[in-house]
Amino acid sequence: MSPAKITDNKDxxxxxxxxxxxxxxxxxxxxxxxxxxxxxxxxxxxxxxxNITCECLRAIHERGGDIIxxxxxxxxQSSNNANIxxxxxxxxxxxxxxxxxxxxxxxxxxxxxxxxxxxxxxxEQIAELKRDKAELRADKALLVEQLEASRNQTDEIRLLYxxxxxxxxxxxxxxxxxxxxxxxxxKASS
Length: 190
What we know:
Elements: E1 5-6, H1 11-25, H2 29-36, H3 40-47, E2 52-53, H4 54-62, H5 67-72, H6 93-107, H7 116-189
Antiparallel strand pairs: 1-2
Helix pairs in contact: 4-6
């Protein structure tokens, strides 16, 4: 399975926040490299906002780093990330579900560390996204059905044109034959 990657327009900010958290845990890139076995080049890319992977987030999380802050820009209220968002925070559903997915992959948790009210909000937003996805699938199925009907009509029209061409060719042959016959009959009667 390939590592999940963060690839939206907030990458540079995430990279800066990742750098802040890394510097709290490891004073140097060399220390990070030695302890995690992750490459300096990868770290440099991540800190520049390029393709922050779950392996990087997991390494930071396992050493007490605030990956919620890296992903959302919101500090968790405890060092073990038990309280992710306050009730007054407004974060769009895409950011929440994307961050939750990265958090799940990075920490290996099942999301149970969310406070109940925030977890319920997240679950409602995920359910809404799933409903939207189901509606889009239904729309897609309808469009595919309409496309297939259109293709069938196109095939029927093509067959009709082919039949028309055969009839026209046969008709032209009959007309030519009749002209030849008429000419022969006219010669014979003269």
